[in-house]
Amino acid sequence: MDRLLIALVALSLVFSGCFLLEEEEEENVTENVTPPPPPPPPNPGIAITSPTEGETILMEGETSDVTLVLSSQNLVLMPPGGTKQTGEGHFRLTLDGTVMGTFASKIHVIEGLGPGSHTLEVELLHNDGTSYMPRIAKQVTFTLEQQEPEEYEPQEYNVIMKDFEYEPASLTVKQTDSVTWVNEGNFPRSATCFKDGAEVFNTGVLGPGQSRTLAFNDVLECEYYSTTHPPMKGTLTVESNE
Q1: Do you find a cis peptide bond into 40, omega within 30 degrees of 0?
Q2: Cα 183 from Cα 169, distance rounded (Å)
Q3: Residue 181 near residue 212 (C-beta atoms within 8 A)
Q4: In the chain, where does DSSP find H-type helix?
Q5: Shortest CA distance to 144 belongs to which of 192, 96, 185?
Q6: From its phi and psi, is residue 196 left (phi > 0), alpha (psi between -120 and 50) or beta?
Q7: Interval 76-92: pLDDT, tens
Q8: Could you give the 3-state DSSP secondary structure of residue 87?
Q9: Is the separation of the CB atoms in 173 and 195 below 8 Å?
Q10: What is the model's pLDDT at position 11?
Q11: Are 42 and 136 in contact (CB under 8 A)?
Q12: CA nearest 212: which of 178, 165, 187?
């Protein structure tokens, strides 16, 4: 009986030692495992939102400013200079094959473009001014077109001849407009303009209730009067309609 008890105790100690040894080996294995490296940062992406490919932009003058609008992903915009870091950088603009400079915003105004087709390229650069590999760039071609001026539609105006005044006394119109003088007074009156001794326009003498319409095609500024009552004066200005 004593021998059996001793044998059981000895066997128990052997198993305990085995379990301790396995735990130590597992701990050693865990301590020696190297964690995997962090994944590399994703490459940034860019897109040109405006102008769009093939877009026609109407110009109001001989030149026009164009607003460049960009969008981006996984990108922090930084001014030129600094350490090269994936996910950071600035843009370089090339217009019609000519480098126009760099900028670090998603909205950039291109000034003074003339009519015709234009191709612009925007490339993302590292902080140190080097290109990403592979290059990250977008390109669009658009057209600037001069807007045809709307054809002017002539207007009509009335000037009322009172007994001793014109109403309105001063009137400004545009080329090809017409003016009708209407005598609503009690005396015959005219609207007569002379400049440098030459007659510019003349309604002739209009009796009460009569009217006369004149069209004006030339630019002018003239003080006119009534030949039947010279102190009665008015002013007519004709401006260009272009």
Answers
A1: no
A2: 14
A3: yes
A4: 2-31
A5: 96
A6: left
A7: 999 999 999 999 999 99
A8: coil
A9: no
A10: 46
A11: no
A12: 178
Token pair 């001026």 in the structure block, residue: 149
Q: Show the tokens assigned to 26.
A: 């597992």
b/e code 180-207 from CB counts within 10 Å (16+ = b):
ebbbebebbbbbbbeeeeeeebebebbe
**Could you tell me if 169 and 193 are in contact, meaning their C-beta atoms sit under 8 angstroms apart?**
no
CA distances from 204 to 29, 41, 56, 213, 237 (A): 118, 88, 54, 11, 19
- 226 beta partners: 229
Distance CA 119, CA 40 (A): 34
CA distance 45 to 52: 17
pLDDT of residue 3: 57
- Which domains does the chain carry? 45-146 (2.60.40.10), 156-239 (2.60.40.420)
Question: Which portions of the chain are predicted below pLDDT 50?
Answer: 1, 4-5, 7-11, 13-25, 29
Q: Which residues pair with 99 in a beta bridge?
A: 94
Strands, sheet with 45-50, edge to edge from the N-terminal-most edge strand = 45-50, 64-73, 107-113
pLDDT at 147: 86
What CA–CA distance (Å, rounded) separates 106 from 96? 20
Strand partners, 48: 70
pLDDT tens track for 124-138: 999 999 999 999 999
CA-nearest of 216, 47, 26 to 139 is 47
C-alpha closest to that of 68 among 101, 35, 36 = 101
115 cis-preceded (ω within 30 degrees of 0): no
For residue 95, what are its two tokens? 């217009």
